[in-house]
Amino acid sequence: MVSDPWPAIGREQRIWTSRIPPDLVSARVRQRHSGPYAAAVVPEIAHRRPALPAGVAALAEDASVEIARFDAELGAEVAPFAAVLLRSESASSSRIENLTSGAKSVALAELGSTDKRNATEIVGNVAAMVAALTLADRLGTDALLAMHGALLSEVHPEIAGRWREEQVWIGGDTFGPHGAAFIPPHHERVPALMADLETFARRTDLPLLSQAAIAHAQFETVHPFSDGNGRTGRALIHAMLRGHGLTRNVTVPVSAGLLTDTAAYFDALTAYRQGDPAAIVEQLANASFAALANGRRLVLDLRAIRQRWQGMITARRGATAWPLADILLRQPVIDTRTAARELGVTAQNALRAIGPLVEVGILGEFTGFARNRMWQSREVLDALDDFAARAGRRG
Predict the structure, then answer these.
(1) Are the C-beta atoms of residues 241 and 252 closer than 8 Å to each other?
(2) Are the CB atoms for 71 and 292 separated by under 8 Å?
(3) Residue pLDDT, tens place only, 64-113
(4) Is the residue at 72 inside a domain?
(5) What is the pLDDT of residue 107?
(6) Which of 364, 313, 365, 322 lies closest to 343 in space, CA to CA?
(7) 293 and 318 housed in the same domain
(8) Do residues 40 and 11 lie in contact, with contact meaning Cβ atoms separated by under 8 Å?
């Protein structure tokens, strides 16, 4: 294994062919986006070994221990917390890309509503996370394509699950790469670089959290898709944590930790491209500690809500209102069809389960319709929104 200093990206000149219609922009803009540009040349990393400062390596190891402890803590009561934490991570990862939505809108989108595009995209990110965890034991380029397909199949089916076939860039303007903050490698280089990343991600001779952070930074540097790179790249972190056995039960909401200082996160990705992998490892480790604290508080809030309900529900023991109360912790907005499916009963019996929860204020009907009614648990939705608010706040 190569243990030289981590390589910085290089640059190569590429010719830009403008596709701007002459009557769309000024001559000055056309002039700015003409001639060659410098695309990144990304070194392969499959067999390299990062030499991290001792303090950063120790921090990452401590974070790994805490992630494993959190996963074990919830192992005995995975439902409903696995679903809640996965959705919370998906929402936080989307929020890094400025895709924000309240817990209620996300819950409605999961029931099929397309009224809020951001919520629909967050639900796509939930699907990508599910794919990441499902395919964690087969981690590779096929799994990454499947994650991306799940992420964008509803909103951008024309590019979902496909490597990009065009030059992309970050920053600047939409008309061309000249003046961009970062220009990823030319699309011709993407398949080979992703095959190289697959080999790196499958290695078993590296400390896992450091390996996952570097794989994520390499993924973002290659930028293999036309859209959805950030969310897919963060799903890759979870696929590696699950595939290599650090997590077995739940999704640690690391994106919620990254949200506390997104500028530092993006600076760490820039440092990686300059040959410093320590910054992104440190960012992911610190984000993990912040995420674990936030995740534990969410779990405590949900447990307290469920305990309070225990003294409120007056239905007889064995009635379907009791298991429905458990379902509400992970599905705080329901309709009759959803309740019936989750409980395994008829629609009429689902209504019988909903009634006692409405009577004591656990559920509230919010559509005002006589048909196609929907109910919400405001307490659970507030707990999820509180989690999101804490994630965006420096501590």
Answers:
(1) yes
(2) no
(3) 999 999 999 887 665 667 888 888 888 888 888 887 878 888 878 787 87
(4) yes
(5) 79
(6) 322
(7) no
(8) yes
Q: Which residues, listed in sequence order, are joined to residue 10 by a DSSP beta bridge? A: 41
Q: Would you say residue 42 has pLDDT above 60?
A: yes
> Is 319 found in the same domain as 262?
no
Amino acid identity, position 339: A
In a domain, 379, yes or no: yes
Same domain, 22 and 49: yes
Q: Which residues contact 258 (CB under 8 A, 6 or more apart)?
A: 92, 96, 234, 265, 283, 284, 287
Q: Cα angle at 294 between 209 and 393, to 5 degrees?
A: 100
pLDDT exceeding 70 applies to what percent of the chain?
96
* Dihedral angle computed from the Cα positions of residues 110, 133, 242 and 161, in that order, rounded to the nearest 10 degrees: -120
Pair of tokens at residue 59? 């921090």
CATH code (residue 63):
1.10.3290.10
Contact status, residue 74 vs residue 81, Cβ threshold 8 Å: yes
Task: Give the residue-averaged pLDDT of 364-392.
Answer: 89
Domain's final residue, options 244, 269, 297: 297
Q: Which domain covers residue 376, as residue numbers?
A: 311-388
Domain-terminating residue out of 271, 297, 323: 297
Instruction: State whether 383 and 350 are in the same domain.
Output: yes
AA identity, residue 108:
L
Rounded-to-integer distance, Cα 199 and Cα 184, Å: 20
| pLDDT for 395 | 45
Q: In this structure, is residue 395 part of a structural domain?
A: no
Q: What is the pLDDT of residues 116-132, one digit of tens each?
A: 777 788 877 788 888 88
